[in-house]
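$ fold --in a.seq
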Amino acid sequence: MARELSLPRRGSAAGGPEALVRAGYASADTLILEAVLREAPIGVVVLDRDLRIERTSRVAEADGPLTPADAGRHLSDVWPGVPDDVIRALRRVACGRVAHVDMRSDSPDWRADRMVISAVLDDAGAVGRVVWMWTDMPLAGRLNGNGHRLLGLR
């Protein structure tokens, strides 16, 4: 069964997203990105070149110890359980050695079916942002360490 939500009526409350754009509080692109991150059925973390968190999707927050308040903090400070091979891939993209990585971690504690790490270039053609996405992390990975014990996997 599909879950549906109704759109707000025009002119309701604060005027909706269009009013935010008109008032200069947000660009249309920012509002689109926020909607995608809110509703995407995948984990998404947007990082700067130094691997500081800029934005996260709801799924990323559910899969790890991330919260919206973590914006500006280094990924390894917020989520120390990210496997070394994933951190190395994030760094390769952030420094511009590669533009895109499609991988699966070798870590037995990290079981996303697929991870994609992509560079977003700035106007000068340098890496401005790194987008890390993943799908299908099983329940054991979502339970932050206790999952293996609770599910009898260790």
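$ fold --in b.seq
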Amino acid sequence: MKAKALFVFSISALFPLLLGRGAFAQSVDDLSGLSLSAVGQSLDYRETVSGSTVDKDSGMMWGISAKWRKDFNPFFLLCNASYTSTQSATYDGALQYYDGSTEPYWFDSEKESIVILQADLGYKLFKFEHFAISPCLGFGYRDWTRGEDDSSTGDYAEDYHWFFVDCGLNFDYATGNWSIGLLGKIGFPPSPKMDTDYNTNSISTYSLGAVPFYIVSATVQCDFPSSNPYRSFFLSISPFFEHWGVGKSDIVDSFYEPDSTTNIYGATIGFGMKLGNGY
């Protein structure tokens, strides 16, 4: 509920920003910049076997993200890096044995962290002065660690990690001292892996099934008044939703990883510097 409230609040907070007007006429060629943002997001992870949930994580995660965009017409490069973590996620699940038996675990102080690095190249296929529609292609890396190899959290940790490729559409609208962007992407991890650390010193690697993912986000940027629009500062707000999934793994030492999905609702609030032509 906290995450959905944050998600709705971030969307409603966009509207006051849309009322601002600056002393210069911004176009979709003037969006280059660098920003640093605070991130809040809600994690909802579920593992399923024969349609039934056998394992789930939930909780709020907080962190930081950095974003860099460079326009070099008709292309633009968009790079993002983010880190979020928590020490109070709720874990309710079990180890899944090949013979169908389980070994349950439950605790409400689970440590989790997510790192995402991604870069997308966009092409302004349909471009006007204040509006552009751009297909984009990208790649990235995701690393998610859940649990911890000590007795307080069941002596069990998992590290999901994979490279991915993606494609999508980006919509930009810019005028005055504000801009709004919408981005939708679908992607695929060719070879996802999971490393487990059980009872501190037993490490195994599982090959997971590759499942498509998708991400949607909206970003509103409001530039502060400046005599130099190409070196102005700005405030940005960006609600987002991510859906990830992996398929059932191979069997390793009588264990396997079931099918799973992860839904993340979140928002970023950031401050940045606009970097116009010539930097």
